[in-house]
Design goal:
This protein is mainly alpha-helical and 281 residues long. It contains ten helices and four strands. Strand 1 and strand 2 form a beta hairpin. It is extended. Its cofactor is heme c. It holds the Pfam family Cytochrom_C1.
């Protein structure tokens, strides 16, 4: 009797859960969630014809160097590259002397205290060092950036959907809040201190437009004009490299493997025909 009672109780709860699930599913289908400003006005990234797109794509080292220049002169004031070493810049075409010269323009803070000033001491980086963080800690980062902590950019293009295009779109997507949005959602006006950008997930972000004018960064002779669009493309390409420095090797290996598999398949098929040529099926 005890077993029968336990079975009936279990059957009752199983049936109750099934009925609850069906009722919830019906309610969800019959009453879809209310539309939100983020869902209606969030836009997918614009598509850019980067040199590394496609299975045969490759990095344009001149563009990567321009992108690194944009990062160094604009983005590095707030963002870090904690997974990238100075010596990695050799992949961009810089020689050893140039890498050392670049490293000297940065400073790594140490826990030692300068006895003369009472401030944290620092040292000049060597090529094996990672790029130093612009702030000592998250509290300092938030205090300098409208209570928002700037993310590390080392893997940003891998952390976001369609990352390269996302970075480009975000940098060029700052605009006034559309009148249509305010008409449909009058309570979602961009708060003071934030900036409207339809390529950001919740439409408003603390980061002010980092690229604001042509010539903000001066490129070398023979390079494209440093328009906002061009600088955005260049730094997006550079951040793609920081996230996937071995992309070209991966693509080359993939093509070699595909070629090997095609040849192996052809040889296997010919061997099959040769071995079973005399056999009637």
């Amino acid at each position: 009797m005890v077993r029968i009672g336990a079975f009936l109780v279990g059957l009752f709860f199983s049936g109750w859960l099934l009925v609850s699930f069906i009722m919830g599913a019906v309610a969800y289908v019959s009453e879809p969630p209310a539309p939100t400003a983020e869902k209606e006005f969030h836009e997918h990234p614009k598509q850019v014809a980067f040199s590394f797109n496609g299975p045969l794509g490759h990095y344009d080292k001149a563009q990567l160097q321009r992108g690194f220049q944009v990062f160094s002169e604009v983005c590095a004031a707030c963002h870090s590259l904690k997974f990238v070493s100075f010596r990695d810049l050799a992949d961009l075409g810089y020689n050893e002397a140039e890498v050392k010269a670049i490293a000297k323009n940065w400073k790594i803070k140490t826990p030692d205290i300068d006895p003369k000033t009472g401030e944290m001491a620092g040292r000049v980086p060597v090529p094996s060092d990672k790029f130093p963080k612009p702030f000592a800690n998250n509290v300092a980062a938030a205090a300098a950036n409208n209570n928002a902590i700037p993310p590390d950019l080392s893997l940003m293009t891998k952390a976001r959907h369609d990352g390269s295009n996302y970075v480009y779109s975000l940098l060029t997507g700052y605009q006034a809040q559309p009148a249509e949005l305010l008409q449909k959602f009058p309570d979602v006006k961009t708060p003071a201190g934030l900036h409207y950008n339809p390529y950001f997930a919740n439409l408003n972000l603390a980061m002010a437009p980092p690229l604001t004018a042509e010539g903000q960064v001066t490129y070398g002779e023979g390079q494209p004009k440093p328009t906002v669009d061009q600088m955005a493309q260049d730094v997006a390409a550079f951040l793609t490299w920081t996230a996937e420095p071995k992309m070209e090797n991966r693509k080359s290996a993939g093509i070699a493997v595909l070629f090997f598999l095609l040849v192996a398949t052809a040889l296997a098929y010919m061997s099959y025909r040769n071995v079973w040529a005399e056999t009637k099926h």
